Amino acid sequence: MLTLNHLFEQNKEWAARILRQEPDFFLKLSQQQFPTYLWIGCSDSRVPANQIVGLMPGELFVHRNVANLVVHTDLNCLSVMQFAVDILKVRHIIVCGHYGCSGVQAALRNARLGLSDNWLRHLQDVRQKHEQNLLSLSDESQTSDRLCELNVIEQVVNVCQTTIAIDAWERGQELAVHGWVYGLKDGLLRDLNITTTGSHETLKVYQAAISSLS
Q: Considering the entire predicted model, what is its pTM?
């Protein structure tokens, strides 16, 4: 039976390295988590949330799925959001997509992947909504990058329209929702300028973000 012993060895080395840097790290980590941020990102193995932003375990609450979608019927994503906002009191929700996303490329090419096609139907809706914007680009790489950006912007709005975010804002809780995109080729994040801190500004910020991509 394959036991993946090399991963256990790497785990031991990692834990030992952490203890050398901070002897009480795991003791403090085991007692409570106090993250300031919720990261909603893609499941892509090339996009490790904590490392991208230089945060240690315990500092970033994470939800990941294919193509970083926020779907109003996805109880997994909504449960993570509710726990993060209501229980952990995170101050920031970051929706982060990435260039070169396989889900985005599949949506652009109408590729059939299997069961995941049903999930990516939500991304197809984003593509159709912004068809004119995408048609203005002749290069396939540029079109893919643009859809990655548009998808993040749409998912930020989806976050803002959940009862979780709306209820938090109505009770005066401090909460900001951000939209970022990550570059696989340079390791850098790009702010898509759709930061929202209340329901009243969501539409205005959304329209400005979309216009900036035109």
A: 0.94
